[in-house]
Specification:
Layout: E1 2-6, H1 12-19, H2 29-34, H3 39-48, E2 52-57, E3 60-68, E4 73-79, H4 88-101, E5 106-112, H5 116-123, E6 127-133, E7 136-142
Antiparallel strand pairs: 1-2, 2-3, 3-4, 5-7, 6-7
């Protein structure tokens, strides 16, 4: 069984382990650094504002979700491949959504159109798809009434 808790700066190395372990939308440490996503930047974000949650299973981080609350976006949601299919991703997305909906009536995310992630998000109620080109889409979700 897993539990969700706020991420701490000291979780950063584990977040990168999870992020670089995924099969779909895989990016290595160098690629992430090219986008400005470094251990230092992630640790600083986590330390500055509650923006990231981790799923912990057997004292190991099994997945995480991360938001940009100012932009109203779900920035990341990743689960270790060996931990998929247990509801971890859905629980992490729900936690991120709850935080975003505190400030935003409509939230968004971007993903690849034909990815498993897109199918999961659609299953979780994300929709109103906008084509961003290059096979990428933006999905939206409205705060429940």
């Amino acid at each position: 069984m897993f539990r969700i808790r706020p991420a701490r700066p000291e979780d950063t190395a584990s977040l990168f382990e999870v992020r670089t372990s995924v099969r779909e939308n895989h990016q290595g440490v160098g690629e992430l650094a090219g986008l400005g996503i470094t251990p230092e930047s992630v640790s600083a974000m986590i330390g500055a504002d509650p923006c990231c949650w981790v799923a912990v299973e057997d004292d190991r981080i099994a997945g995480f979700s991360m938001i940009d609350d100012n932009a109203g976006t779900l920035f990341a949601a990743f689960v270790r491949p060996e931990c998929e299919g247990r509801g971890i991703g859905g629980a992490l997305v729900a936690r991120a959504e709850a935080a975003l909906f505190q400030r935003h009536p409509v939230i968004w995310l971007e993903t690849g159109r034909g990815t498993r992630a897109a199918a999961v998000y659609r299953h979780l109620g994300w929709g109103s798809e906008i084509d961003l080109g290059g096979g990428n889409i933006r999905l939206f979700k409205t705060r429940p009434a």
